[in-house]
UniProtKB/TrEMBL annotation:
Highest rank taxon of the organism: Bacteria
InterPro entries registered for this protein in UniProt: RimK-rel_E_lig_ATP-grasp (IPR039523)
Organism: Gaetbulibacter aquiaggeris
Domain Alpha-L-glutamate ligase-related protein ATP-grasp stretches: 2-148
Record-given protein name: Sugar-transfer associated ATP-grasp domain-containing protein
Length: 164
C-alpha cells in the first residue's frame, strides 16, 4: 500500500493512518465523534502511539490538523507542533480526501453491530482505504488527541445513556 504523497512529506516511513471513531445514536444517526492521525517517528514503519508514534487531532468539519501532536505518557508524553524528523508543521495542513474518508466511515458504520467503532483509514494517492474497524476502539487515544473526551457533547450523551 502506498500513502498519499502529501502525508509522506510529514513521515515517509510509515502509513500514517487516521483513526475515526463513529457513534450511532438512538435514532440510527452516525456521528463522527473524533478523528486523529497517527505519525511514526524515526525510521519506524509503525504509526501506532503504543509503539512510540504520536497523534494529532483533526477537525471533523475541515480535515485540518489541529496543530499539536501528543505522545502517550508511557512513551514520554512529548508534544509536537511539527514532526520531530521532517520538521513539517502541522497547523493548517488539510488531510487529502478527508471528506471521502468521512463518507466511507459513515457508509460502513452499519456493518458492525457495535454503536461505537474506531476505524483505521489509510489515505492513498487515489483516496481513503479502510485498514480495519475496531469494535473496541480504545478511546484513550481519542481522549488524548481530542484534549479531554469528557468535554465532548457526544461523549456526554453516551454517558447519560449508560447511566439510564
Amino acid at each position: 500500500m502506498e500513502q498519499h504523497p502529501l502525508l509522506s512529506q510529514i513521515h515517509p516511513n510509515a502509513i500514517n493512518s487516521l483513526r475515526m471513531v463513529h457513534y450511532i445514536d438512538k435514532n440510527n444517526t452516525v456521528h463522527i465523534v473524533s478523528t486523529f492521525i497517527r505519525f511514526g517517528v524515526g525510521t519506524s514503519i509503525i504509526d501506532n502511539t503504543s509503539k512510540g508514534g504520536f497523534a494529532v487531532a483533526v477537525n471533523n468539519e475541515t480535515g485540518e490538523l489541529q496543530g499539536v501532536g501528543r505522545q502517550e505518557v508511557s512513551k514520554g508524553a512529548a508534544t509536537y507542533f511539527e514532526h520531530p524528523n521532517t520538521h513539517f508543521k502541522f497547523k493548517g495542513f488539510i488531510i487529502p480526501y478527508f471528506q471521502e474518508a468521512l463518507n466511507l466511515v459513515k457508509e460502513f458504520a452499519f456493518y458492525f453491530p457495535n454503536r461505537i467503532v474506531g476505524w483505521d483509514i489509510a489515505i492513498t494517492p487515489t483516496g481513503p482505504l479502510i485498514i480495519e474497524g475496531n469494535h473496541n476502539p480504545g478511546l484513550r487515544g481519542s481522549d488524548i488527541a481530542y484534549g479531554g473526551y469528557c468535554k465532548h457533547p457526544l461523549i456526554q450523551e453516551i454517558l447519560e445513556e449508560i447511566k439510564k
